[in-house]
Structures are given as structure tokens and as C-alpha cells.
Design brief:
GO biological process, one term (chain A): transmembrane transport
Number of strands of chain B: 0
Number of helices of chain A: 21
Helix content of chain A: 40-55%
Order of helices and strands of chain B: HHHHHHHHHHHHHH
Structural class of chain A: alpha/beta
Strand order of the largest sheet of chain A: 2-1-3-14-6
CATH superfamily of chain B: MetI-like
Signal peptide (chain A): 1-25
CATH class of the largest domain in chain A: Alpha Beta
Number of domains of chain B: 1
Protein name (chain A): Sugar ABC transporter substrate-binding protein
InterPro entries (chain A): Bact_solute-bd_prot1, SBP, SBP_1_CS, TAT_signal
Keywords (chain A): Signal, Transport
Oligomer: heterodimer
Chain lengths: 446, 304
């Protein structure tokens, strides 16, 4: 079933690729003539009073409660919450709907890494027209800069994933390993742990684009530079080199569990101690609680290991925005819901249900920071996450075709994990393949 | 297809002599027995795994050996939870799947029967052309047509409705081809002539005389189209966005994906139990219809 699904998705991806090309080619003609008429808060309010129904495509689980309370507050509005697939599946569906010109949702969840692709394809409404600029300062810098892409504000941050080190304290204590504060210590801990217990690994990694780009981000790398349709890709810059150097050691010494993230084997490893740490986004606690209930009390959270001892650098990992596709039927009502969910009362509802916020107010609130996590032995984990959110290295950007680039990550960089090919060669191959695709799509790639 | 027909047709010639010769002729080849045993295990292990693991809790799934039971026997709790999860959406998906199978596979079978009979028993200009188109259509995988079909359907405003799944399911080139060859051999031309001489109209001839003869073929086609529609994944994936119209395949996948998203609830135990519940109706259909199906294929094999 799984291989089938892969093959299916590949077909779908190809179809999407074809559609994207057409979309980009088509939008070349109306460059500059892209002015959206402003929509005032009164007009949004009027839409709410008038009522109607909107369709929201999202897979984020906590939105369900947000919809319930939104409908209670605005009884005339019916919100049709649709899970149109997770991540890539949904993007394929969204591209197809946009290309077909029908069935386009009013609001769609789009991950930060995918937002530039939809924004530049002119598929999304610039929320500046709704006065989204006023929300400057509402969100933490990482997510806020992620939605401000391509000269507009193409989404509002829904959640964020400032990274932290999740570690299995029981395993660390058993083998008397200190919690690593730098990546060198992390590599040393990996060695010590695997020597003490050949079944245990410091972490799992079979090549994960999101993780790799996040670590390069933290290391200060800026491999992707985007200015309109001019794109520069350099996966050999200083930050990328730092990452490749450390990670190559872990790969060569076979210190990484060969288990794909999000697989059943991954959940198993997180539960039985064979995967001892995860460096991952702050949304992870909810997944641990539901997916690995057996390890309750064993895990703890610490700041991300640093590339330079004593530094305080962090990066974002994952996270999504809510955006408004241009072809949606009811943009004003869509924005009303979007704002409610990302910057209004919806935020609290989502946080209460386990989501990690992207809003500064929540991240600074005493209630949020003081929350004790029974799963982490009563630790106030949000303090670690909030600090990480503040320490995110500024200036990062994704490619305007990152969805495609990430989809070929395993064919290029992934090779370094299963063969003797050096990681740097893999990154180079990824750069070349991405650049070629970008050129084919009409970008100027330098 | 071939793997399923071969044993049956091979067995068919010996069928008339079965009673007498059986004991003497029964020669065993150790190699073949071993190979068959391996095939049997290969086919059964996933089922056994499914059955065993449907009885485990989410925690038990990861802490116990995969091919044996955990201490907790949670099958009934799991079934209850599967049916109740997310306001009982699983039941809704089950009903959707039944709807698609009844209308889609049922319609496909009816169309294939009518078309196959007509092509086998009537001569008309362009028959060779039809033959070429049908054979060509058998060779085109449905997956390749899904995206163009989607674009066409969205122009018609049919996406995100049950019709988007039912209408494409109505077309079964392979079923048509099967009915065609089956009708050609199962209905003697003399019988039709006799019916016509006796004054039966074409419709009456078809319904009263040919349908019973075609029954085994119809059941075979019905089974194939049922399996295809029941397991259809890609077409509904592209066509449907509203979980209220999902068939089981999409629904289970959505549940499985919950484990792969930030903040999602991992419900592997429900996915496994749901999968078990999903295959039960198909198993039942095969067991009930098996007799007709086998005699149908054998009849075709004996003919010439």
C-alpha cells in the first residue's frame, strides 16, 4: 500500500508541476498590475453580520474547537472545516483546484516552507489589503518574517516551531551522559550512547529536508536568497558547511537510527529508548503525549545544542500559516476567520488544546510559561520553547519552489545517508537539481 | 488475474473424471507443495498480522512482538473506539464506500454485461474499431486518467460530489472485454436463433435466456469491479476534499496521517482495526460468490 501511495503521489506531483509551470507562465503577463483593492475592518464586520459559509482546508487538529467557538460567536457563519490531506497532499489538491478554477477553499493551511511557492504563483491574496500590516508585533519574528514573503503578507502565522532538544532523561541517566549544549558534545554523546548500548541511537535521521534546513538556519547559513524571481542557491555556505561537518561524522560512524520520522517505527523508538533525543519544533509535546504515552515522565526538554559554545541561536522547524487563496469565494469572511484563529480568541483555544502559538502575547503570558508538563516530569517546558522563539536567527528564507525542492531531497542529499557519498556532495546535487527546476519554472537562478 | 484463473482452468479438464481417478492420480511434488506453502504463508501473514495487531492498544502495538498477542486483548475496545472516533465518521465512510460500490461497481457490471453481450452476439460495422478501443483502454491505467478526469469534472462542477467517484467507476474496459469473450463462448448462436424463431424479442431473449447463462461471468465481473471500487484510492483522493464523502481508503489514510503532523493524535491502533473492518466485507463477498465465480471461469475454459 505504501509503495503504491508513493507512486501515486509522484504522479500527482508531476501533474502539479505541470500545472505550476502553466500558472507561472500565465502570470508573467500581468506583472505589476496586481493591485488588490483594500478591504476595511468594517467590510469584514459587515460580512460577518451578513453571514454565509466558508470552506477551510486544514489538517491542524485544534482548529476544530476554534471553528466551534467561531460559529457560536457568529451564528450566521457556517465554517466547513475540511482535512484535504496533510502537507504535500493538500498542496497538490490546492494547486489542482486553483488550476481548475473551482472548489478552491476560502482559507487554507500552508506551511511556512510552502508559502513562498503559493505566494509567488499569485495564488494567494496579499493580506495587507485587509490591514494585516497592523498586526506587526503580534507574532514572533520567525513566523512573521516567514509570512512576509515576495513583497506582501500572504498568510498569518498559526503556529510556530522554535526548536529545542527533547531527550530521554532515563536513557541519559542510565549511561551517565550529560545533556549536550553544543553540537560537538552532541556528537560525543551519540558515540558514548551507542557504545554503551548498540541498540540505542542519539536520534533518528534518514535524510529530512525540514530538519536539515532548520539546522543550517541555526548555524547561520542563508542558502536560499530570493528577490522577486531572482533566486540564489548556495548550499555550501558557512552555515551549511558547519552542519555538513558535524552531521557527516554522525552518518559515517553510523550513530543515527535508520528510522524515518513520523513512521510507526519512530514512535516505537521514542517509546523504548532506542531513539534518545529529538531536535525538533516546540509542537512536539502533543505528539509525544498521544503517540508515545508509555514514555510519560521519561522525557525532558533543553535548549538546542549550539554551533558555538555559549551562543544562543535557534531556528524554526515546521509550523504553518493560514492563507486566503485568491480564487476563494468569500475572501472577507475568510479573513475574519483567519484573524480569529491566528490572532484572536482562537489562539487561546488552540494553545489550550496543545498547539504551540506564534503570538508574542501568549509566549510572554505567565500562565503559558508557568505550565507544568506532566509528560516532562513537571518541567515548565514552555520556558525553553519561548526562549528559543526569541533566539531564532533572523534573515532566513525558503525557495519559492521549496515544496518541489524538498520532494527531491531524498534523491540527492538522502544518498549520503545510505551510501559512501559525502554529505557535501549530496547538498551540491540538491542545489543543482533545485536550480535546474527553478530555471525550468522561469526563475533566474544564480 | 492470470494467477487466479490458471489453477481453475487447469483443474477443469479433470473435473468430469474426478470421482474415479482421484486417488490413483494424486501425485505429490514436494517442490510444488513447498512453493505453494510459501505462497500461502506469504498471503496469510499480513492478514494474521492485521488480526493480531487489531487486538492491541496503541501502547501495546509498540511494546509487544508483532506476530503475537499482547497481554491486553483490546479488539472489542478498538472496534468500539473505531466506530465512535470523531463522531462515528468511520461508519459514514463505510456507507460511502458501499454507495460507491453498489452504484459504481453495480453499474459497471451492468454496462459491461450489456456491452459484452452486444459485441459478442451482434454484427455491426465498426466492431473491430470498438475492439481496438476496448483493448487499448484496458492498457491505460486509471491513475493516468485521474488528473484529466479531475479537470474535466471540475468544469462540470462535479468534483467533491459522490458522482465524481461513481461516474468514472462505471467504466470497466476489462470487465467489458471479459464479458465479451465470456458471452461469445457461453451463449451458443443456435440458442439465440431458436429463441428468435420462437418469437422472443431481443430484450426478452437477453433477460430470460442469456442472463442465466451469463451469470457466472457477471459474478466474476462484479467481483472484479467491486474490489476495484472498494479499494479505489487515487480517484477519490483527487476528486474528493470533503471528508463526509470519503470512502474508507481515504479515511483510513487520513487517520494514519494524523500521526505525521505536528500536534496530531497518533491512532495507529484505530487505523489497524479500521483496516481489518474494511477488508471483512470483501472477504465475505468472495466467500459467498466464490462458487459462481469458479464455475464461471471453468465453463469458459471447458468450452473449446
Amino acid at each position: 500500500m505504501f509503495t503504491n501511495r508513493r507512486a501515486f503521489l509522484r504522479t500527482a506531483a508531476l501533474a502539479t508541476a505541470a500545472i505550476t509551470t502553466a500558472a507561472l507562465a500565465a502570470c508573467g503577463s500581468d506583472d505589476g498590475g496586481d493591485t488588490t483593492t483594500p478591504v476595511t475592518a468594517d467590510q469584514v464586520q459587515a460580512a460577518l453580520d451578513k453571514g454565509g459559509s466558508i470552506t477551510v482546508w486544514a489538517w491542524e487538529p485544534t482548529l476544530k474547537q476554534v471553528v466551534t467557538s467561531f460559529e457560536a460567536k457568529y451564528p450566521k457563519v457556517k465554517v466547513n472545516l475540511v482535512n484535504a490531506g496533510t502537507g504535500n497532499d493538500q498542496y497538490t489538491a490546492l494547486q489542482n483546484a486553483i488550476a481548475a478554477g473551482s472548489g478552491v477553499p476560502d482559507v487554507a493551511q500552508v506551511e511556512y516552507y510552502a508559502l513562498p511557492q503559493f505566494a509567488l504563483g499569485k495564488s494567494l491574496t496579499d493580506l495587507a489589503a485587509f490591514g494585516a500590516g497592523e498586526l506587526d508585533g503580534t507574532f514572533t519574528p520567525g513566523p512573521w518574517s516567514s509570512v512576509k514573503t515576495g513583497g506582501g503578507t500572504f498568510g498569518l502565522p498559526m503556529d510556530s516551531g522554535p526548536m529545542a532538544l527533547f531527550y530521554n532523561k532515563e536513557v541519559f541517566d542510565k549511561h551517565q551522559i550529560a545533556v549536550p549544549t553544543t553540537w560537538d558534545e552532541y556528537a560525543a554523546a551519540a558515540k558514548k550512547l551507542h557504545a554503551a548500548d548498540p541498540k540505542a541511537y542519539i536520534t533518528n535521521d534518514t535524510g529530512d529536508a525540514g530538519f536539515t534546513t532548520s539546522l543550517i538556519w541555526q548555524a547561520g547559513g542563508k542558502p536560499f536568497a530570493v528577490d522577486g524571481t531572482n533566486v540564489k542557491i548556495n548550499l555550501a555556505d558557512e552555515g551549511s558547511a558547519k552542519f555538513a561537518g558535524t552531521w557527516q561524522k554522525l552518518i559515517s560512524d553510523k550513530l543515527l537510527a535508520p528510522v524515518g520520522s513520523w513512521s510507526d517505527g519512530w514512535y516505537k523508538g521514542l517509546g523504548d529508548g532506542s531513539i534518545a533525543t529529538l531536535v525538533i519544533g516546540a509542537w512536539m509535546p502533543a505528539n509525544l503525549e498521544s503517540g508515545v504515552p508509555g514514555a510519560k515522565g521519561k522525557w525532558r526538554v533543553a535548549p538546542m545544542p549550539q554551533w558555538t559554545a555559549g551562543a544562543n541561536a535557534a531556528a524554526e522547524n515546521g509550523g504553518s500559516s493560514l492563507a486566503i487563496p485568491k480564487a476563494g469565494a468569500n475572501n472577507a469572511l475568510g479573513y475574519a476567520f483567519l484573524k480569529y484563529a491566528t490572532a484572536g480568541e482562537g489562539v487561546k483555544i488552540r494553545v489550550d488544546n496543545g498547539a504551540f502559538p506564534a503570538t508574542t502575547a501568549e509566549l510572554k503570558s505567565a500562565e503559558f510559561l508557568g505550565k507544568e508538563f506532566p509528560y516532562f516530569g513537571g518541567q515548565k517546558a514552555n520556558e525553553v520553547f519561548a526562549k528559543s522563539a526569541a533566539d531564532v536567527v533572523p534573515g532566513w528564507s525558503y525557495l519559492p519552489f521549496q515544496v518541489y525542492a524538498n520532494s527531491i531531497f531524498n534523491d540527492t542529499v538522502g544518498q549520503a545517508y545510505v551510501t559512501d557519498k559525502p554529505l557535501t556532495d549530496g547538498l551540491k546535487a540538491w542545489q543543482e537539481a533545485s536550480a535546474k527546476y527553478g530555471k525550468d519554472q522561469g526563475f533566474t537562478v544564480g | 488475474m492470470t494467477t487466479q484463473t490458471t489453477p481453475v482452468t487447469a483443474a477443469a479438464p479433470t473435473a468430469p473424471a474426478r470421482g474415479r481417478v482421484r486417488r490413483k492420480e494424486q501425485r505429490r511434488s514436494p517442490l510444488l507443495t513447498a512453493l505453494t506453502a510459501i505462497m500461502l504463508i506469504y498471503s496469510l501473514v499480513p492478514l494474521v498480522w492485521l488480526l493480531i495487531n487489531a487486538s492491541k492498544t496503541q501502547e501495546g502495538l509498540f511494546s509487544s512482538f508483532g506476530l503475537w498477542f499482547d497481554d491486553d486483548f483490546a479488539l472489542f475496545d478498538n472496534i468500539r473506539a473505531t466506530l465512535a472516533y470523531d463522531d462515528g465518521v468511520f461508519v459514514r465512510w463505510l456507507l460511502n464506500t458501499l454507495l460507491y460500490v453498489v452504484l459504481g461497481a453495480g453499474g459497471a457490471t451492468a454496462l459491461a454485461t450489456l456491452g459484452g453481450y452486444a459485441l459478442a452476439k451482434f454484427d455491426f460495422p465498426g466492431k473491430r474499431g470498438v475492439f481496438a478501443v476496448v483493448i487499448g483502454a484496458v492498457a491505460v491505467p486509471g491513475t493516468a486518467l485521474a488528473v484529466p478526469t479531475f479537470l474535466m469534472f471540475s468544469k462540470l462542477g462535479l468534483t467533491n460530489t459522490p458522482w465524481a467517484v461513481i461516474i468514472p467507476s462505471l467504466i470497466s474496459p476489462f470487465g467489458l472485454y471479459l464479458m465479451w469473450t465470456f458471452a461469445a463462448s457461453a451463449i451458443p448462436g443456435e440458442l439465440l436463433e431458436a429463441a428468435r424463431v420462437d418469437g422472443a424479442g431481443e430484450l426478452r431473449t437477453f433477460i430470460r435466456i442469456c442472463m442465466p447463462l451469463l451469470a457466472p461471468g457477471i459474478v466474476t465481473v462484479a467481483l472484479f469491479t467491486m474490489v476495484a471500487t472498494w479499494n479505489n484510492y487515487f480517484l477519490p483522493l483527487i476528486m474528493l476534499k470533503d471528508p463526509d464523502w470519503y470512502p474508507l481508503t481515504l479515511g483510513l489514510n487520513a487517520w494514519n496521517d494524523q500521526a505525521a503532523t505536528a500536534g496530531g493524535q497518533a491512532i495507529f491502533h484505530l487505523v489497524i482495526t479500521g483496516s481489518l473492518l474494511t477488508i471483512l466485507p470483501l472477504l465475505a463477498a468472495f466467500l459467498f460468490l466464490q462458487r459462481y465465480w469458479q464455475s464461471g471461469l471453468a465453463a469458459g475454459g471447458v468450452k473449446d
